[in-house]
Amino acid sequence: MRSKIDDPNFSSGVAIFGSDDVAKKYSMLYFDERGVSRKYDVTMTGNQLKWWRDEPSFSQRFTIAIQDGGNNMVGVGEMSREGATWEKDLALTFVRLS
Questions:
Q1: pTM for the full model?
Q2: What does the alpha-carbon distance between residue 84 and residue 9 come to, in Å, rounded to a whole number?
Q3: DSSP-based three-state secondary structure for 22
Q4: Cβ count near 70 (within 10 Å)
């Protein structure tokens, strides 16, 4: 998955989704142009795709609801720094163009 937002405050990135067929677990490796790299756990249940990382210094979670037969995806992210209360992070809406 490639990500690019036309705003200089957001870095372009790439994510690779994969699975472990024996453990039946999914993960995502993310890296971006800042040199940031992270591993997330991933689940897909019904129409929801979720990924998260539990790292004491900076935890993140993101949930995408797939709607309208897959033509729209609405994503909401949260983050927690140093174990503090979760706060709102990035919110994105994806719309299929064709």
A1: 0.85
A2: 24
A3: coil
A4: 9
